[in-house]
Amino acid sequence: MGLSIDQLKIIERQAVADLGKTLRDRGRTIVFTNGCFDILHAGHVSYLQAAAHQGDVLVLGLNSDASVSRIKGPSRPVISQEHRSRVMAALACVDHVVIFDEPDPGELIRELNPHVLVKGADWAEADIIGADTVTQNGGRVARMVLEPDISTTIIIERIVARFS
């Protein structure tokens, strides 16, 4: 049995630099964003659709399980990186998913060298990791407005409240 389309969209960490070079050589505008995407919700989908509209190819850096735990605490992630990566790759707006284990996506951004770096508008541009790399290479940073009152943390809190 062959790989499914979503599995083909998941690329190995060490292949990122080659992917970036190939896409640039083909004249494609590379968009990069990253996150934990622990429990996929409508806010994530809106954000990723908006990010995809910033260029030709959306590459999603997905925090590994270890990385999520370092950021969010020992009870997270709820969903494993294997399952999160498959769900993210199944979205039509996401072209490639790469799992990274580093504390932040800085090195991944340097290797991919995207034209556009996307983060939520809740981040000041000065605080966005990789913004300096992207702008120094002639790219730009796009800050997306997030949907209010929806987040993985809020969803988990609602579930816990309902069943406690």
Automatic annotation (TrEMBL):
Reactions catalysed, as given in the entry: D-glycero-beta-D-manno-heptose 1-phosphate + ATP + H(+) = ADP-D-glycero-beta-D-manno-heptose + diphosphate
Catalytic activity, EC: 2.7.7.70
Keywords: ATP-binding, Carbohydrate metabolism, Kinase, Nucleotide-binding, Nucleotidyltransferase, Transferase
InterPro entries documented for this protein: Archaeal_FAD_synthase, Cyt_trans-like, RfaE_dom_II, Rossmann-like_a/b/a_fold
Pfam families per record: CTP_transf_like (PF01467)
Domain Cytidyltransferase-like positions: 32-158
UniProt GO BP: carbohydrate metabolic process
GO MF term set: ATP binding; kinase activity; nucleotidyltransferase activity; phosphotransferase activity, alcohol group as acceptor
Name under which the protein is recorded: D-glycero-beta-D-manno-heptose 1-phosphate adenylyltransferase
Lineage, broadest ranks: Bacteria, Pseudomonadati, Thermodesulfobacteriota, Desulfobacteria, Desulfobacterales
